[in-house]
């Protein structure tokens, strides 16, 4: 649903919650009830009329905008069907990931081999999937919650896991912005739980730094992959030697 349509739907719900009818709005605006109904049906409002209707409910325009924001569902997970649709089209997935990383319309066109027509098509698809709100002049507003995660073992996680196995780990991690540590030892349950909590805290720190850097110019940011993993494990070649 377009942003304007969603705002008018919020206005209609507010009128209903205040037990006000189109007839009440018509009297306040000195219009016929038929014209008011037509105005809501066509969603053709100017700002002054919206402010006047808000005043009828003893509300400020900012109150209506707050209700609008509250009504916009912030998604924490996609459905498996949505993830499947993203994975089916590599360019669509690329645009979705780019937007989640804070890139705008012009950034996508400047950095990837995607035409304007394709980009607008993919943005419209993401709007339909309710991942973004596509605003005038191709501005983008994310509808993803801060705690958003891909589905565990879902289509997108499986896609990226294959990339990790095939590409990410094929490095000696000796570059200036590269680091690899592997540690192996015997730990108590309490120590394992402590490390689990530290990993969770570190992932939140990574997310916070990502969000903090979104306002920086794109040429001052680097695409960084970070993998943290821990599990009970025995070296396979040692297993035949265990008693």
Describe this structure in words.
The longest helix is centred in the C-terminal third of the chain and has 24 residues, at 189-212. Strand 1 (132-135) and strand 2 (139-142) form a beta hairpin. This protein is mostly helical and 243 residues long. The N and C termini lie far apart (64 Å). 9% of the residues are buried. The protein has a two-stranded antiparallel ribbon with strand order 1-2. It is elongated, with a radius of gyration of 25 Å. It has eleven helices and two strands. The chain has helices spanning 3-17, 22-29, 33-42, 47-56, 61-71, 80-88, 90-100, 105-111, 116-128, 155-168, 189-212, and strands at 132-135, 139-142.
Helix coverage percent:
40-55%
> Order of strands in the sheet with the most strands?
1-2
Number of beta-strand segments: 2
Low-confidence stretches: none
How would you sum up the major sheet?
2 strands, antiparallel
Structural class by helix and strand composition: mainly alpha
Instruction: Report the span from N to C terminus.
Output: 64 Å
Shape: elongated
Mean of residue pLDDT values: 88
Radius of gyration: 25 Å
- How would you name the oligomeric state of the polypeptide chains in this document? single chain
State which percent range the strand residues make up. under 5%
H/E topology pattern: HHHHHHHHHEEHH
Number of helices: 11
């Amino acid at each position: 649903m377009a942003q304007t349509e969603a705002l008018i739907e919020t206005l209609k719900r507010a009128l209903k919650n205040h037990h006000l009818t189109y007839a009440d709005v018509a009297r306040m605006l000195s219009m016929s009830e038929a014209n008011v109904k037509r105005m809501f049906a066509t969603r053709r409002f100017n700002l002054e009329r919206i402010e006047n209707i808000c005043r009828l409910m003893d509300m400020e325009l900012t109150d209506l905008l707050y209700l609008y924001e509250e009504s916009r569902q912030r998604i924490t997970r996609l459905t498996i069907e949505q993830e499947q649709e993203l994975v089916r089209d590599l360019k669509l997935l690329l645009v979705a990931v780019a937007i989640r990383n804070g890139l705008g319309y012009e950034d996508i066109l400047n950095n990837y081999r995607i035409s304007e027509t394709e980009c607008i098509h993919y943005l419209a698809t993401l709007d339909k999937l309710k991942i973004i709100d596509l605003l005038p002049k191709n501005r983008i507003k994310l509808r993803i919650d801060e705690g958003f995660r891909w589905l565990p073992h879902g289509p997108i996680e499986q896609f990226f896991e294959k990339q990790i196995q095939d590409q990410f780990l094929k490095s000696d991690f000796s570059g200036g912005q590269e680091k690899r540590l592997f540690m192996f030892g015997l730990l108590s349950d309490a120590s394992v739980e402590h490390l689990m909590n530290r990993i969770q805290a570190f992932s939140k720190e990574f997310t916070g730094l990502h969000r903090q850097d979104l306002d920086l110019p794109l040429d001052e940011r680097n695409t960084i992959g970070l993998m943290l993993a821990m599990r009970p494990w025995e070296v396979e070649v040692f297993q035949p030697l265990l008693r």
